[in-house]
Amino acid sequence: MRTKSLLLAALILAVVMAGCTSIGPQPTPVAPTKTPKPTFTLTPNWTPTPMVFATAAPVAAAPTADAAAPAQPETTAEPAITEAPTAEPTPAEANSVVRLTAAQTVNARRGPGTNYPVIGRLTTGQAFPVTGKNARGDWYQFDLDGQPAWVIANLVNVSGDPAAVQVAQNIPAVPTARPTARPVVRPQPQPQPQPQPQPQPQPAPAPQYAWALQVGSILGAPQCGTVHFDGQVQYKNGTPQNGVCVYLDYYGPRTIKFSGGGGSGDGNWSFSPCGSGDCKGPFEIYVVECPGNMPGAGLTLEGGSPPAPQSNKFTATVSDKCQEGQWTNIIFKNTRE
């Protein structure tokens, strides 16, 4: 019985000890402390910008057990806005509203004058901002490929107010004119007479006919009895040629005979147109084309037109047959064979 009482007492004591351990006083939790926002202080040399920053409403810090005094409210001062001073425009900015446009092709020079060298050329329609002018205002300065150039005012069109263009400060000095070199006078060479070309011998004209009358061979003699003509037809080399018809024409009958015919001998022919009578002519003797029915003794033609000549003509008129009634050695020479 006593033993059971001791066990029961030990059990009750263990339960009481366990309850004391779990029900003991718990530590009080501490609330987090919020760090107050920093206050912006203006720097004496700081230049404010025109921007305005919105200030957030201050947040009160939660009281803590350790805080000795409440946090002071946060204040932010508005910075004063100061406008920057406006700078005066430079001459280039003042002239930028004035532009020049080439009215035609015009030279761009190093300075305001035609005695300055040409450094470029503007074509019609090219435009540039005006950067200056000369004192007289008849030349304008502009920038050409990175260097100052000048153009005469009366060859360009200007947009804007030319009076607003300032006189350029960098006008180059007028170039010194170089002395003109005297031309060297050289003696002119005297023209030399040109040799005149010597006349070249002209070839003899081609014969007009197949036979040519040999004028220098004809012989005349008196013949009181009978007017008589005789001669010969020859090849080109001078040998007699037979079968060539020779024609005699005068106011009486017209007669054709051929060379070598009627027993007259090789190449020979002869005419006695008047017999023993008196006839004066004029007479014409020349070579013709033989007719197809030519007899050996000759042929007398009645009427019709005379045949076409095949040679130049021998002509003669008899005024007194006792003084000149006979002609011999009348030669017709072949010009082709």
Keywords:
337 residues, mainly beta, SH3 type barrels, Immunoglobulin-like, 5-stranded antiparallel β-sheet, 5-stranded mixed β-sheet, 2 helices
Walk me through the structure:
There is one protein chain. The chain is 8% helix and 25% strand. Among the domains are: 91-164, SH3 Domains (SH3 type barrels); 211-334, Immunoglobulins (Immunoglobulin-like). The chain is elongated and about 220 Å long. It starts with a helix and ends with a strand. The protein is built from 2 helices and 17 strands. The chain is mainly beta.
Topology:
Layout: H1 2-22, H2 91-95, E1 99-102, E2 106-109, E3 118-122, E4 127-133, E5 139-144, E6 147-152, E7 156-159, E8 211-213, E9 219-221, E10 228-234, E11 245-249, E12 254-258, E13 268-271, E14 283-288, E15 299-301, E16 314-316, E17 326-334
Parallel strand pairs: 10-17
Antiparallel strand pairs: 1-4, 1-7, 2-3, 4-5, 5-6, 8-17, 9-17, 10-13, 11-12, 11-14, 12-15, 14-16
Strands of the widest sheet, in order across it, are 6-5-4-1-7
Helix and strand element order: HHEEEEEEEEEEEEEEEEE
Task: Using the CA coordinates, give the radius of gyration.
Answer: 74 Å
| Terminal Cα span | 199 Å
| Main pleated-sheet profile | 5 strands, antiparallel
Q: Which architecture of the domain at 211-334 would the CATH scheme give at its second level?
A: Sandwich
CATH superfamily of the domain at 211-334: Immunoglobulins
The poorly predicted ranges are 20-24, 59-71, 73-79
User: What is CATH's topology name of the domain at 211-334?
Assistant: Immunoglobulin-like
Number of beta-strand segments: 17
Fraction of residues in helices? under 10%
Average of pLDDT: 77
Instruction: Give the CA-based shape.
Output: elongated
Category by helix and strand content:
mainly beta
Assembly classification:
single chain
Strand content: 15-25%
Query: What is the class of the domain at 211-334 in the CATH system?
Result: Mainly Beta
Number of DSSP helical runs: 2
